[in-house]
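Colleagues,

For the teaching module next term, I've prepared a clean inverse folding example: a structure given as tokens, and then the sequence designed for it. I'd like students to try predicting residues themselves before seeing the answer, so please don't circulate the second half yet.
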């Protein structure tokens, strides 16, 4: 298992949890997950591509689930697909922060049946994360992001893109890494970063965000027993508190 507050479902525009990751989440969460999705569709209509909504987690051991509608690779010009994928990541992170979550797990959105080339998927997801951190770090509660997938090739590609995108110098005050570390060389030397651990595939940005690549089932996420949100320690009992009814983040693009 991996410990996060909220997980992301790669959803369709109708929020039907009938296949792939959605079906796995529904099986683990129970029928309330689909019921909450139906409430959102009934109130707001279908999601636009790149839009995200949030629901209760049902029987899942995380606090909430974010559902984001990723783009299909051949649905429009490829540049537009990449922009929409980045938008899906951004709206997911915004919802996580809006609900006070410090940690989030997300899959390789749009890389499966939606046909997004895996390397382009990784580059755009990490670019969106970096852009979000640069713009919102001082106000966001999000401090840890897990990229989670069961496929070894997906994990390998995300790890390599993570190494390439971020630099190799250890930041001051960075936590000690477990497992052997390999120096990373990158053209982005103006933004030094902690090396990725070969064992944990984890990196800390200069701002302090931890990005971890995890080869597990995303539905195996469990709530962290303690977390630090904007420097304030929150105990396990408070983290276990349930959130109210499903919420939606409106399209501003």
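(Answer key — instructors only)
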């Amino acid at each position: 298992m991996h410990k996060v507050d909220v997980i992301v479902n790669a959803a369709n525009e109708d929020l039907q949890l009938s296949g792939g990751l959605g079906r796995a989440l529904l099986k683990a969460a129970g029928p309330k997950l689909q019921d909450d999705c139906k409430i959102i569709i009934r109130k707001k209509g279908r999601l636009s591509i790149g839009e995200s909504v949030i629901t209760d987690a049902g029987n899942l051991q995380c606090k909430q689930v974010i559902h984001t509608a990723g783009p299909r690779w051949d649905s429009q010009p490829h540049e537009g697909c990449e922009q929409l994928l980045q938008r899906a990541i951004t709206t997911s992170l915004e919802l996580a922060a809006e609900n006070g979550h410090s940690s989030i797990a997300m899959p390789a959105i749009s890389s499966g049946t939606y046909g997004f080339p895996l390397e382009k998927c990784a580059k755009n997801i990490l670019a969106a994360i970096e852009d979000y951190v640069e713009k919102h770090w001082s106000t966001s509660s999000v401090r840890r992001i897990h990229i989670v997938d069961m496929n070894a090739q997906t994990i390998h590609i995300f790890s390599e893109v993570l190494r390439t995108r971020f630099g190799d110098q250890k930041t001051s005050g960075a936590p000690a890494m477990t497992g052997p570390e390999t120096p990373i060389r990158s053209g982005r030397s103006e933004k030094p970063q902690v090396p990725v651990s070969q064992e944990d595939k984890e990196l800390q940005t200069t701002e302090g965000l931890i990005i971890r690549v995890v080869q597990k089932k995303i539905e195996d996420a469990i709530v962290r027993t303690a977390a630090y949100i904007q420097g304030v320690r929150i105990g396990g009992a408070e983290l276990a508190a349930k959130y109210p009814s499903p919420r939606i983040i409106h399209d501003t693009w």
